[in-house]
Specification:
- By secondary structure, the chain is an alpha+beta fold.
- About 30% of the residues lie in helices and about 25% in strands.
- The strands form three sheets. It has a six-stranded antiparallel sheet with strand order 8-9-11-10-12-13, sandwiched between helices. Strands 4, 5, 6 and 7 form a four-stranded antiparallel sheet that branches. Strands 1-2-3 form a three-stranded antiparallel sheet.
- The chain is built from nine helices and 13 strands.
- The chain is globular, with a radius of gyration of 21 Å.
- The longest helix has 15 residues.
């Protein structure tokens, strides 16, 4: 595979010309997943694009590069230009031990989750053009993790508004069912994400999102199923009717059988207590 990748890199370099730098990179993604990719950068820019290696042809890679323009990004790296582009994401602390050595983070009390930070590079704040905020970057900017959290608390909810929909409504839209077809289906599962459906589990950090949901449903709390790093399933049922052991087993099986490694958030089931406004692991 390495020989083929080298051949593709050489061919891409020929097609793009000398104004571009094309090279192989290995990127640490969520859950310490390492992906090989081909990085393409205009030599007069500090921002590069990475095409993750899936054995495409040279023409396919060049087509991807041509279809997605390089982000328009001011090359001057300073706090004033970057602070409004910093957002937070939720990841599993235990599954990101190597990655967390290189990036600032804080643990979410009562859970196995860590709050990490991303820099939105695209001028339109497109989440697909982002980069991890690293320890090296915050040292260069002269900021602390507390500063990052302050910036991200303001920016994330603004750029990635929360979305809560019942699973019934989602299924009916996918299957083009009429409202009458699903009107008798109990709405016990709701999907919490953001409107981009990208790292939407961070919505539980937004002030009052979970609390207001519980008030609306007249509940003291809600079980939270991590279906991926992109969404939580909120289980609207009385505690006495929830078989926690079964739900936790279901989460583990789904993580192993239905998700890519980098999309897994946790094997744990969580509970949000609206009285003390806190999330904890269900033991």
């Amino acid at each position: 595979m390495d020989d083929k990748m080298n051949d593709v890199i050489n061919e891409v370099q020929k097609k793009l010309g000398e104004e571009y730098e094309v090279k192989r990179v290995e990127v640490m993604k969520n859950n310490d997943t390492k992906l090989k990719g081909i990085q393409v950068r205009k030599k007069d820019m500090n921002v590069a694009k990475i095409c993750y290696w899936t054995s495409e042809s040279v023409d396919e890679i060049v087509d991807v590069i041509n279809r997605s323009l390089f982000p328009k990004f001011d090359c001057e790296i300073n706090l004033e230009k970057l602070k409004d582009r910093i957002v937070y994401t939720l990841v599993n602390a235990d599954s990101n031990k190597s990655r967390l050595k290189t990036i600032p983070y804080r643990l979410l009390e009562g859970t196995d989750l860590a709050i990490t930070y991303k820099l939105i590079i695209d001028i339109d704040f497109n989440a697909t053009a982002s980069s991890d905020v690293t320890n090296a970057l915050i040292e260069h900017l002269g900021v602390t993790e507390n500063d990052l959290y302050t910036f991200a608390t303001k920016n994330t909810q603004k750029l990635y508004a929360p979305s809560i929909m019942s699973l019934t409504d989602i299924v009916s839209k996918i299957d083009n069912q009429s409202q009458e077809d699903v009107s008798n289906t109990p709405e016990t599962i709701f999907v919490l994400t953001n409107f981009k459906k990208h790292f939407g589990t961070s919505c539980i950090l937004y002030p009052d999102v979970l609390k207001n949901f519980c008030i609306e449903k007249n509940m003291d709390g809600v079980y939270m199923i991590p279906s991926s790093v992109h969404e939580f399933l909120l289980l609207v049922m009385d505690k006495e009717y929830v078989n926690c052991g079964y739900v936790k087993q279901m989460i583990k099986e789904a993580n192993r059988e239905s998700l890519e490694k980098e999309d897994v958030l946790s094997d744990n089931l969580y509970y949000y207590n609206a009285v003390n406004d806190a999330v904890s692991i269900v033991e």
